[in-house]
Specification:
Elements (H helix, E strand, L loop, with lengths): L15 E3 L7 E5 L3 H25 L10 H29 L14 H14 L14 H25 L7 H12 L1 H33 L3 H7 L1 E5 H6 L4 H9 L2
Antiparallel strand pairs: 1-2, 2-3
Helix pairs in contact: 1-2, 4-5, 4-6, 5-6
Length: about 250
């Protein structure tokens, strides 16, 4: 197969070209842009640090004689929290500045095709269907789940800063003290703790789903979060709801 080069308004050299290391009927598709990949791993790392330090803060399992360990753990908890917030702000911006796989329209079921895909994907996970919908980016069910996770991350951020200001620390007491005033400090702590476990449960399911879909579709899903590229056949490109006009135009001119 000859090399394909988009022309004119299709001139995005990252969109599609035959994969050199894949069979000739596979195409390398640039799906996850660099900001998406970086924020994915930064968020993952910060959540791990926040979880470990948060568990220790809630229930110290080792208290040295010097007594300085808690201060150190709190320091790194706060550092990880700011890294987490910064990553979230970048990803939020990319919901509007990113490509079609990263934009907010990829997460909300705003089209009939996405709604149909939502039911089909759910049926596939429940073993009611033998075939999953073709999609290059997030499938509609995963995208909907991510919206719930984004909301949980927002709650975790809000309650976290409320706890930082619980003892009068500024400016967090002024900015977020109202949260404790509304629901009470103990409820803030409980919500913060429960959301942590909910996020950990999601991470376990997320890894399982990625392994399952990667094994089933064999399109390089796991590797794509490192490289940004997925590998799709011509049939998958034609059936994918988010293949895009550029890809269809290139395929028609083969």
């Amino acid at each position: 197969m000859s090399s394909l080069q988009p022309a004119g308004k299709l001139a995005d050299r990252h969109v599609i070209h035959p994969a050199e290391a894949m069979p000739s009927w596979r195409y390398r598709i640039y799906v996850w842009q660099l900001p998406v990949r970086i924020t994915h791993w930064v968020t993952f790392a910060s959540i791990l640090v926040l979880t470990v330090t948060g568990i220790y803060i809630a229930s110290p399992f080792f208290v040295p004689d010097s007594g300085s360990l808690m201060a150190t753990v709190r320091f790194w908890h706060v550092v990880a929290a700011f890294v987490f917030v910064a990553s979230g702000l970048v990803r939020t911006y990319w919901l509007f500045a990113g490509n079609r796989f990263a934009r907010w329209t990829a997460f909300l079921p705003v089209t009939r095709a996405q709604l149909r895909e939502l039911s089909r994907q759910t049926a596939w996970y429940l073993f009611w269907r033998r075939d999953a919908p073709r999609v290059l980016g997030h499938n509609a069910l995963a995208a909907g789940t991510y919206m719930v996770v984004f909301a949980l991350l927002g709650v975790q951020t809000l309650t976290g800063f409320a706890l930082m200001g619980a003892h009068g620390t500024e400016p967090w007491h002024v900015l977020f003290g109202w949260v404790s005033d509304i629901v009470g400090l103990q409820m803030v702590r409980l919500i913060h703790h429960l959301v942590m476990w909910a996020l950990l449960a999601f991470m376990i399911h997320h890894v399982y789903s990625a392994l399952l879909v990667d094994h089933t579709e064999r399109n390089g899903l796991l590797g794509s979060i490192f490289t940004g590229y997925k590998f799709a056949s011509k049939e998958e490109l034609r059936e994918a709801r988010d293949a895009g006009e550029e890809l269809e135009e290139i395929l028609r001119h083969e």
